[in-house]
Amino acid sequence: MTKSKVAVTAPLWMQKKSQNFLGGNRIDLLEQIDRCGSISTAAKAAGMSYKTAWDALNVMNNLADQSLTVAVTGGSGGGGTRLTDEGKKVIRLYRLIEAEHQSMLARLGESLDDFNNYLPLLQRITMRISAKNVFSGTVCEIIRDTSVAQVVLQLKSGHQMTAVISTDSVDALALEVGVSAYALVKASSVMIANEPGTLAISAKNLIRGSVTGITESTVLGEVVLDIGAGETITATITDSSVKTLALKEGDEVWAVIKATSVIVGVE
Predict the structure, then answer these.
(1) Which helix (H) or strand (E) holds 120?
(2) 19 - beta bridge partners?
(3) Residue 120: phi, psi to the nearest 5?
(4) Cα within 13 Å of Cα(240), Cβ side
(5) How many domains does the chain have?
(6) For 21-45, what is each residue's pLDDT tens digit?
(7) What share of the chain is helix, strand, coil (3-state, %, to 5)?
(8) Is there a contact between 87 and 34 (Cβ–Cβ < 8 Å)?
(9) 150 with 230, same domain?
(10) DSSP 27-94
(11) Could you tell me the CA-to-CA distances from 42 to 4, 75, 82, 181 in Å, in that order?
(12) Over the stretch 90-126, which tens digit does the pLDDT of each residue have?
């Protein structure tokens, strides 16, 4: 599926006394009043209700140094509303600023190639999820069984992360070798070991790293490991375990993660 490119848009508002003073809809209304000579007719032409138009005019006239409109009474037309010279001047000024504004947006749009290239990175950074550990990688192996599959991601740090998920999920995510994907692991699913090689454990993921941060509390502690290439793994373990392992910054330890605790996602 081809992704749509991002375009730059921005509404133009002029403010006064920290309040929105002039914007596109209000300028349209002023132009229609200048053309029609009536608030009710101008409101319809500008696509707003009479009350909205009336309120907008009140705000503009209250904030303007000089009134932008003036009521006209009597005459063959039965009265109405017209723009003052100040009102006409404001329209000209706004349209000049608007032209420069659009020109600036167009120039930004021409420079968006890099932004579009980096958009996936921005999306990853701004994802709002509860899992502490999010890794970006490439699927390097898929082993399917009847109902479950083993999916292996190659991380930028050089480590591999193995997940066991349902074959339905593999199909739903359209996973195949070479596809970019994410591995998500809750910090509470990460165990820390000094020398896992001396133990017989079933966890598929054993990733070595250097302790860069330790947070202790009454019950739970948090340990952060640097696993290379700017990637880290955060583990939430009991405070007593932090003390038992005698962890300190700079220690080389192992993160132990069961494959069934790894969630796989795609953009």
Answers:
(1) helix 113-126
(2) 16
(3) -55, -35
(4) 1
(5) 2
(6) 677 788 899 999 999 899 999 999 9
(7) 35, 35, 30
(8) yes
(9) yes
(10) HHHHHHHHHHS-HHHHHHHHT--HHHHHHHHHHHHHHSSS-SEEEE-STTTT-EEEE-HHHHHHHHHH
(11) 37, 19, 11, 54
(12) 899 888 888 888 887 777 666 665 555 655 655 665 5
Measure the CA–CA gap between 210 and 120, rounded to whole angstroms: 28
Residues 225 and 105 grouped into a single domain: no
Residue 44 identity: K
CA R_g for the chain: 31
Q: Rounded to whole angstroms, how far apart are CA atoms 48 and 30?
A: 12
CA distance linking residue 163 with residue 158, whole number of Å = 16
Pairing of strands 205-215, 80-83: unpaired
Report DSSP state, residue 194.
S
The CATH number covering residue 29 comes to 1.10.10.10
Model confidence, pTM: 0.55
DSSP run (H or E) holding 184: strand 180-185
In a domain, 241, yes or no: yes
Q: Which of 120, 116, 253, 230 is nearest to 182 (CA)?
A: 120
Is residue 54 within 8 Å of residue 42, measured between CB atoms? no
Q: Which domain holds residue 30?
A: 13-110
